[in-house]
Amino acid sequence: MAPAPDQQAMHDHDQMATVDPAALPGKPTRSLESKLILRAPDGQGRETIVNRTIRAPGTRAPIHFHDAGGTTCVLEGEMTLYLKGQAPQRAVAGQCYYMPSGMPMSGVNSGSVNAVLLDIFTVPVGTPVWRVTEEGMDAIQQQFPAPQK
């Protein structure tokens, strides 16, 4: 019997190399704010979740991955996305970046002001939008509340 999708994602991720936290700029912290602004089920077992997130300068999300991928759009400030094996991707106000599924990553506020973001995900209903994998950062997993089933 195949593992449940949730277990399969964790298994797949465990087989991947991770991003080295020592190589990342910024301090891993919870965002200043993460507010759910939209949860829209599509009636076919998936839902779109949009969070408005504010991240302080010089801080970063803990290393994590997304089961289903997602997009971050920068409304104010700037962010830099660090993905395993890829060059950093800088995005300033008015730009977005895509976060592929299953890839270890961290987003860093690389600017000098608070970064205001829209984090957009489409996931199976009841699936968390992210999974924190950085050691010692388990409490930050709660930044995006677990979806209600």
From TrEMBL:
Protein name (database record): Quercetin dioxygenase-like cupin family protein
Domain Cupin type-2 residue range list: 56-121
Keyword field contains Oxidoreductase: yes
An MF annotation (GO) of this entry: dioxygenase activity
Keyword Flavoprotein: no
Superkingdom of the organism of origin: Bacteria
InterPro entries named in the record: Cupin_2, RmlC-like_jellyroll, RmlC_Cupin_sf
Record keywords: Dioxygenase, Oxidoreductase
Region listing for Disordered, in residue ranges: 1-28
